Amino acid sequence: MKLSILDQSSISSGQTAGEALQASLRLAQIGDELGYTRYWSAEHHDMQGLACSAPEVMIPYIAANTKRIRVGSGAVLLPYYKPYKVAEVFNMLATLFPGRIDIGIGRAPGGSAEATNALSDNFLQQVYAMPEKVEELLHFLYDEFPKGHELSKVTASPMPPVPSKPWLLGTGKKSAMLAAQHGLAYAFGHFMSEADGEAIIQSYLDSFQSKKQGEKPQLLLTVSAVCAETTKRAEEIALSSLIGRLQQAKGEGHTVPSIDEARKYTLSNQEKEQLENMKRNIIVGNPQEVGAALKQLQVRYNADEMMIVTICHSPEDKRRSYKLIAEEVFS
């Protein structure tokens, strides 16, 4: 089983944004050492509890300070940007770090309505134009515009020796079908989807249209997981993230609380129910439990790769979680 990392660069209580970004670098370095396949940095806007709003800035920093692991975006929110500029950025990254750059593409706003308006005057129209924007981006990445096309004389320089690997990210059938139509690798956000994931992924596999000889569908499943030496300890660590989400929903805080802070939080009956619902979308346990759960999901969804997102208060606990999972899965 291949393992990868999705990092949201969450900020913990008592931590600065700069410290959170440094913790992200250390996590990527640990992933590099442990044999994780890729590290993706997420794009979010107007979220005070998350430190990364620009993966295109984080990617070269991570790539320059690691050796082997692939580095990419999870995702570039394409409706905000012109495909040509995105292609220029990732062609330059792929030139600097040949064979190590992924370009994950998404359509979500990634933040508040106010942030969306600040970033784009016509976001919804650009979402509707997503199929055309994806096609244009791919033409720029591979320098393969048809002859006579109005953009065929434009090159997204520099053209790298090995192009960045494009992935389409999503949680619904539209994204799955768009990935299949363009012969793209697909990353399904299991941890944030309430849809019928198996049906969505099956539609991708069934509809995949190979654009190059021998090309096959490639599926990555993103899951939320927290692992510790014991189940009890893993549940304590995971509680911080869950309570933090409840607090953020009420506007009471933006950072991930410590375990002690989370324990002291008084839950209403409604919040107790919300907490139980949230637990259903996260794998929590000791290495054997987490490893078994990941394997079960991999088989259930026919996934080539499992990408793990872990939110907790302590950077040390987060790194330990990824280490324990790798040792269990790779042993």
UniProtKB/TrEMBL annotation:
This is LLM class flavin-dependent oxidoreductase. InterPro entries: Bact_Lucif_Oxidored, CmoO-like, Luciferase-like_dom, Luciferase-like_sf. To bacterial alkanal monooxygenase alpha and beta chains. It comes from Neobacillus piezotolerans. One of its GO terms (molecular function) is oxidoreductase activity, acting on paired donors, with incorporation or reduction of molecular oxygen. GO terms for cellular component: cytosol. It holds the Pfam family Bac_luciferase. Residues 1-298 form the Luciferase-like domain.
